[in-house]
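Structure (tokenized):
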């Protein structure tokens, strides 16, 4: 998505060879006009997926998810992160390990807001190791619902998450794909659809 890759080129800051800081439009300050366009783009890409609900995770997934929910006219739920939890029977719970932070978090959603009839679009800001997205998909499956796809703003294609998700058979749509962050420079990868024509 050109609007997003342009914004990353103008405002993204590379830290080390692994991390892209996007505090000026996603992770701290947010750009509502860009988020609106991102919502419309997800709606376009998933228009035939029969989505009935969007699932994201606090905090940075919420803005793009709500804009996609507006564009698709479906409700949006965000999973909550908790350090540890006494078992509660009205929650679906999954454990997500963060390689970046080297800690585990429980993520939860209320059983009230994920129904077995649902076709769920999972949205998140970053895809790195894929643990958050896989945890969200696990919550959907615990509900007996279907994962209709995973929509990501920024995929770091040089990390294992994208392959893990594709290996599990989920449909993955990433609006920007980053091939590398070497030497302080963002190198983008081609869209997966475009790429597959040639591979
Ligand atoms: P994973 O879910 O793909 O396995 O990711 P990982 O544990 O490695 O990432 C932990 C946190 O760091 C996540 O945010 C994720 O969005 C974020 N993250 C990963 N790589 C980058 C990056 O290159 N740039 C930025 N800006 N963030 C990155 P979180 O802790 O869940 O926080 P929140 O922002 O959603 O509250
Ligand atoms: Na996130
Ligand atoms: Na984040």
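Design, position by position:
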């Amino acid at each position: 998505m050109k609007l997003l890759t342009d914004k990353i080129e103008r405002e993204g800051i590379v830290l080390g060879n692994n991390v892209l800081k996007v505090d000026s439009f996603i992770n701290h300050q947010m750009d509502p006009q860009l988020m609106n366009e991102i919502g419309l783009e997800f709606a376009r890409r998933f228009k035939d997926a029969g989505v009935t609900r969007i699932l994201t995770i606090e905090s940075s997934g919420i803005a793009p998810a709500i804009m996609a929910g507006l564009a698709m006219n479906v409700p949006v739920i965000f999973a909550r992160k908790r350090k540890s939890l006494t078992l509660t029977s009205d929650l679906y719970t999954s454990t997500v390990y963060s390689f970046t932070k080297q800690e585990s978090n429980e993520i939860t959603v209320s059983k009230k807001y994920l129904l077995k009839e649902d076709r769920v679009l999972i949205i998140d800001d970053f895809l790195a190791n894929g643990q958050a997205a896989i945890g969200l998909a696990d919550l959907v499956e615990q509900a007996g619902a279907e994962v209709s796809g995973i929509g990501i703003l920024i995929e770091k294609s040089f990390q294992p998450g994208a392959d893990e998700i594709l290996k599990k058979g989920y449909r993955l749509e990433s609006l920007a794909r980053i091939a590398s962050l070497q030497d302080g420079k963002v190198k983008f990868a081609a869209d997966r659809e475009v790429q597959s024509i040639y591979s």
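Reviewer-requested clarification: Residues 2-188 form a domain with the Rossmann fold fold (CATH 3.40.50.2020). Residues 57, 60-61, 124-126 surround sodium ion (ligand 2) (CB under 6 Å).
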